[in-house]
Amino acid sequence: MQVLQELGAQLIDIHGQHEHQSLLRRDMQRTLLDDYAAHGPQLDALAALYREWKRVSDEIAQLRQAVEDRTARGELLRYSGAGLQPWH
Questions:
Q1: Which is nearest to 30 in space by CA: 2, 15, 59, 10?
Q2: With DSSP H G I counted as helix, E B as strand and the rest as coil, what are the percentages for the chain, rounded to 5?
Q3: What is the CA radius of gyration of the chain?
Q4: Element holding 19 (H helix, E strand)
Q5: The pLDDT of residue 14
Q6: Is pTM, for the whole model, over 0.70?
Q7: For residues 34 and 43, is the Cβ–Cβ distance under 8 A?
């Protein structure tokens, strides 16, 4: 149903008063070519790979931040504890 709605919107747009405007948009050109070539499964696979890459990329960024935070905390503790004498 959604595909038909999108196709209907494109057809109305393409055959409407300003048809030349939407056909000049790169995203519309890519969509029309992908639809014509039946690239749906490949696009779905690419989208899944991108989502996984983004998830892993975000996780790496969080881990790097955690390492920086831990390093800064360790330096602060070493600096603040440098002048302390052990208790006897």
A1: 10
A2: 80, 0, 20
A3: 27
A4: helix 19-23
A5: 52
A6: no
A7: yes
